[in-house]
């Protein structure tokens, strides 16, 4: 792996972002809108005495984590789609750039987007609802890392599908994440799901992250079983997704689809 | 001068089938000598672009081998591609970036030692200096072609694959591009594999042409030699004869 090639692709994306209002909006618009919606709802529930003492913390914490997950996924998929939309993939892959370097650059771009979006929503959540994500010290940090890993795994999966089926599958870049939302126990505990769906929920790392996050909020201590399961599942998913992406790339080369991706 | 007759591309028994049945490239073998401009010609669907893409490891061959600089391309992709470049009007540079941003991105990808100096040197050579601060989407076709060619020379390639570089250019700009290519080949000793449907252009540039038709090599030789062999008045008529199987 050569850092100068990773850096080249990353800088190429940053050139785009620095003067593109729609791209900057994509980082901030959805998180801010969701923060306003869910923030006011939790404020209402709190005033009406409907949610218990930690309702603001739990819902806003879930919201911040959900945004991290969706930003991580979208950043990877959209970074790839930028090259599909501009019919630039061929130019990129006639250079010595490796697929792994290309993927790493999209993951790093995702990290930059997440830091930016995370900073803005953390500040807004504090200013509007006095919600401080750092109240729980470093206990939430490993869960943040875990949710990012799952976001990248989902991003690589949707990218693999787009690579194989072209931009007609690009709706996945924006919509796929919502397929897992009901089963990830984002805003409610897993126990709220019917028994059969709980089995589905427990094979998703996101479920363990959201459950673990709620445990930190409720008890003020780190739940190692939740964290451990989240990381184990993440590594399995990442392994599978890398295998899937390389298989799709190999299939695309076999079918000569790289130039026809649009 | 021992390198003059050295083959830097060796293609052996290359086959590409799509969907297991459609044979787009059918058992072709050829070599390309260092420092020469070779034309790869043929009607639409002859297999030229597929062959070039296999040489760039963008398409996996069904069977056969491609060696560039004596190395198998697929197994030595990084090493081979760092010494090769490609340009085609059908492949865009990111159009939302400024021209200098695009060129410096590709310079970084090739690990060019002094990217800024290299971009400026090529901008001077291709007369695109005033285009560097412009957004790529605002360029004309002729300007884009010159920017694409500048991109293709960033890594000082030993082998340049050009897929119809002058298509959609007006005769004046096409003539300028041809002169630039001849100058590059003369000054830098770059080996060029060139596809085009403009036979006058091929006669002007290429010392040798390889004709492909329906995935097979139907002829191979110097343009004048082929004109004589087929008893036609020029390469355009030879092309028609070969395409129609006359």
From TrEMBL, chain A:
<dbReference type="InterPro" id="IPR013525">
    <property type="entry name" value="ABC2_TM"/>
</dbReference>
<dbReference type="Pfam" id="PF01061">
    <property type="entry name" value="ABC2_membrane"/>
</dbReference>
<dbReference type="InterPro" id="IPR047817">
    <property type="entry name" value="ABC2_TM_bact-type"/>
</dbReference>
<dbReference type="GO" id="GO:0043190">
    <property type="term" value="C:ATP-binding cassette (ABC) transporter complex"/>
</dbReference>
<comment type="similarity">
    <text>Belongs to the ABC-2 integral membrane protein family.</text>
</comment>
<keyword id="KW-1003">Cell membrane</keyword>
<feature type="transmembrane region" description="Helical">
    <location>
        <begin position="51"/>
        <end position="69"/>
    </location>
</feature>
<keyword id="KW-0812">Transmembrane</keyword>
<feature type="transmembrane region" description="Helical">
    <location>
        <begin position="227"/>
        <end position="249"/>
    </location>
</feature>
<feature type="transmembrane region" description="Helical">
    <location>
        <begin position="169"/>
        <end position="190"/>
    </location>
</feature>
<feature type="transmembrane region" description="Helical">
    <location>
        <begin position="133"/>
        <end position="157"/>
    </location>
</feature>
<dbReference type="InterPro" id="IPR051784">
    <property type="entry name" value="Nod_factor_ABC_transporter"/>
</dbReference>
<feature type="transmembrane region" description="Helical">
    <location>
        <begin position="102"/>
        <end position="127"/>
    </location>
</feature>
<feature type="domain" description="ABC transmembrane type-2">
    <location>
        <begin position="22"/>
        <end position="248"/>
    </location>
</feature>
<dbReference type="InterPro" id="IPR000412">
    <property type="entry name" value="ABC_2_transport"/>
</dbReference>
<keyword id="KW-1133">Transmembrane helix</keyword>
<feature type="transmembrane region" description="Helical">
    <location>
        <begin position="27"/>
        <end position="45"/>
    </location>
</feature>
<protein>
    <recommendedName>
        <fullName>Transport permease protein</fullName>
    </recommendedName>
</protein>
<dbReference type="GO" id="GO:0140359">
    <property type="term" value="F:ABC-type transporter activity"/>
</dbReference>
<keyword id="KW-0813">Transport</keyword>
<keyword id="KW-0472">Membrane</keyword>
């Amino acid at each position: 792996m050569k850092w100068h090639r990773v850096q080249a692709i990353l800088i190429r994306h940053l050139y785009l972002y620095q003067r593109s209002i729609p791209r900057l909006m994509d980082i901030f618009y959805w998180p801010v809108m969701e923060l306003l919606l869910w923030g006011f709802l939790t404020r209402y529930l709190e005033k009406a005495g409907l949610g218990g003492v930690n309702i603001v913390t739990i819902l806003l914490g879930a919201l911040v984590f959900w945004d991290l997950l969706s930003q991580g996924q979208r950043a990877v998929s959209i970074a790839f789609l930028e090259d599909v939309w501009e019919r630039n993939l061929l130019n990129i892959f006639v250079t010595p750039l490796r697929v792994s370097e290309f993927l790493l650059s999209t993951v790093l771009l995702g990290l930059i987007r997440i830091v930016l979006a995370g900073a803005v929503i953390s500040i807004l959540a504090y200013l509007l609802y006095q919600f401080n994500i750092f109240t729980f010290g470093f206990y939430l940090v490993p869960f943040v890392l875990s949710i990012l890993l799952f976001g990248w795994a989902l991003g690589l999966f949707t990218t693999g599908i787009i690579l194989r089926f072209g931009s007609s599958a690009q709706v996945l870049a924006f919509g796929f994440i919502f397929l897992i939302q009901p089963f990830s126990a984002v805003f409610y505990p897993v126990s709220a799901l019917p028994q059969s769906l709980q089995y589905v929920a427990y094979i998703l790392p996101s479920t363990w992250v959201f459950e673990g996050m709620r445990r930190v909020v409720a008890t003020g201590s780190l739940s190692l079983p939740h964290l451990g399961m989240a990381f184990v599942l993440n590594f399995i998913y990442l392994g599978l997704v890398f295998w899937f992406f390389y298989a799709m790339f190999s299939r695309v080369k076999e079918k000569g689809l790289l130039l026809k991706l649009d | 001068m021992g390198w003059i007759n050295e083959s830097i591309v060796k293609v052996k028994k290359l086959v590409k089938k799509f969907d297991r049945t459609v044979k787009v490239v059918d058992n072709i073998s050829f070599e390309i000598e260092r420092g020469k401009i070779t034309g790869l010609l043929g009607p639409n669907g002859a297999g030229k672009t597929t062959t070039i893409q296999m040489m760039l490891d963008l398409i996996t061959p069904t069977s056969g081998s491609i060696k560039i600089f004596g190395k198998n391309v697929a197994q030595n992709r990084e090493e081979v591609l760092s010494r090769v470049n490609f340009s085609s009007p059908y492949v865009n540079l990111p159009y939302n970036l400024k021209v200098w941003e695009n060129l410096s991105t590709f310079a970084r990808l090739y690990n060019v030692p002094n990217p800024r100096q290299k971009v400026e040197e090529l901008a001077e050579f291709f007369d695109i200096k005033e285009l560097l601060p412009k957004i790529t989407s605002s360029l004309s076709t002729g300007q884009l072609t010159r920017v694409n060619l500048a991109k293709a020379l960033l890594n000082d390639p030993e082998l340049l694959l050009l897929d119809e570089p002058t298509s959609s250019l007006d005769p004046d700009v096409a003539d300028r591009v041809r002169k630039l290519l001849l100058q590059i080949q003369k000054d830098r000793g770059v080996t060029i594999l060139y596809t085009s449907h403009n036979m006058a252009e091929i006669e002007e540039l290429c010392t040798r042409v390889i004709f492909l038709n329906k995935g097979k090599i139907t002829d191979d030789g110097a343009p004048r030699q082929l004109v004589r062999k087929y008893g036609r008045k020029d390469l355009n008529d030879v092309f028609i004869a070969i395409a129609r199987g006359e």
